[in-house]
Specification:
Blueprint lengths: L1 E2 L5 E5 L14 E6 L9 E6 L3 E6 L4 E5 L14 E6 L8 E6 L3 E6 L4 E5 L14 E7 L6 E5 L6 E6 L4 E7 L2 E8 L5 H7 L20 H8 L8 E5 L2 E5 L1 H7 L1 H8 L9 E4 L4 H13 L6 H13 L3 H14 L5 H10 L12
Parallel strand pairs: 16-18
Antiparallel strand pairs: 1-2, 2-3, 4-5, 5-6, 6-7, 8-9, 9-10, 10-11, 12-13, 13-14, 14-15, 16-17
Helix pairs in contact: 3-4, 5-6, 6-7, 6-8
Length: 353
């Protein structure tokens, strides 16, 4: 399969199970656009299992077609699909990444939630058993936010990386069946497949050509806290954070008002912040550049307080999710204390978990 820069999906080759998505099982000797349900949608990523295909479109929906004997399309049945079919079980979720193993699939949402479905002979779904799943089931619910998932069409192995950098693996690992995610000493998911998969493979494309082209999102992320290009800096706890007024005005209504009115801050080159800690305020500014938040639950409560003050509703939801998923028996009291300290009323209800 191939994905164009305009979001069109093309497929060709062997088609015994409908994996080309042409509506038949006739082999396709030349690239043919996969249409049907994808006709008026913009695909952002594609993956292939051994004889199945999946695509994520720009609104976070997932579509699958091809062989489905083990439920690897996640449609609630095991019938093959000759054209793309939407995974209804993931409705309401915004999927950011999908990966496919030999006969199983994984999906990662924008909130860091992980879902698995399909074949489970080797425990590759991470459900704690070896029963196939015809529909997506959530796994690793007790772990912190997941930021990357990995699988490869030639293996029955799965891997995931958390926001703190922990890498887990499960499934067929050096001939052993691991039915629950196992914490490794690795720093990246590639090492799991290099050391434990059969055969040893790369689960993602490896480019040997250096490409210095950056997307808009990558460029923004690169320029955050860069003193060479910044035209404004915040001073928090005696430490500086370098930013760009234009980015802040575009991304945040609070700053748009600050820099387009008669606020004193509009004339300053350095703005002092004393209401929030350095980690909290830096994470907030970084969120405006990247749309991501990477904070421990204790600091996320402070960021939630900031998001409430600045009326950043998406940031509030991300903080609430981080806090809820980060609660453990060991830190429940400290989180409640932090909630009281920051006057985060909405979070105090989590003490009952």
């Amino acid at each position: 399969m191939a994905l164009t820069d305009s979001g069109e999906v093309y497929a060709w080759g062997y088609n015994n199970c409908g994996q080309v998505g042409s509506g038949s099982t006739a082999n396709q000797p030349t690239p043919r656009r996969v249409s049907s349900c994808l006709q008026n949608r913009v695909a952002v990523s594609i993956v292939c299992g051994q004889t199945s295909s999946l695509a994520v479109v720009d609104n976070g929906e997932v579509y699958g077609w091809g062989y489905n004997g083990n439920g690897q399309l996640g449609l609630g049945n095991n019938g093959n699909q000759l054209t793309p079919c939407r995974l209804v079980a993931l409705q309401g979720l915004c999927v950011q990444q999908v990966v496919s193993g030999y006969a199983h699939s994984l999906a990662l949402t924008d909130e860091g939630l992980l879902y698995a479905w399909g074949a489970n002979t080797y425990g590759q779904l991470g459900t704690g058993n070896k029963s196939n799943q015809l529909s997506p089931v959530q796994i690793m619910t007790e772990k912190e936010r997941i930021v990357e998932i990995a699988a490869c069409h030639s293996t029955h192995t799965s891997a995931a990386k958390t926001q703190s950098g922990q890498v887990y693996m499960w499934g067929q690992c050096r001939g052993q069946s691991i039915i629950l995610p196992y914490l490794t000493h690795f720093g990246c998911t590639d090492d799991v497949f290099a050391c434990f998969a059969t055969p040893s493979v790369m689960w993602r494309l490896l480019s040997v050509d250096y490409d210095d082209y950056l997307t808009v999102a990558q460029s923004l992320k690169k320029e955050f806290d860069n003193p060479e290009t910044a035209d404004l800096k915040f001073c928090v706890d005696g430490k500086y954070i370098y930013v760009h007024k234009a980015v802040l005005k575009i991304r945040c209504e609070h700053f748009r008002s600050m820099f387009q009115s008669h606020w004193n801050e509009d004339l300053k080159e350095v703005i002092e912040i004393d209401q929030f800690s350095f980690p909290v305020y830096r994470s907030f500014l970084e969120f405006l550049y990247t749309d991501n938040v990477e904070l421990p639950p204790e600091d996320a409560i402070g960021l939630l307080d900031l998001a409430t003050s600045y009326c950043e509703n998406r940031l509030k939801r991300l903080c609430q999710h981080i806090i809820k998923r980060g609660i453990t028996v060991d830190n429940a009291f400290s989180l409640l204390s932090a909630a009281v300290r920051y006057d985060a009323e909405q979070q105090r209800r989590f003490e009952h978990f």
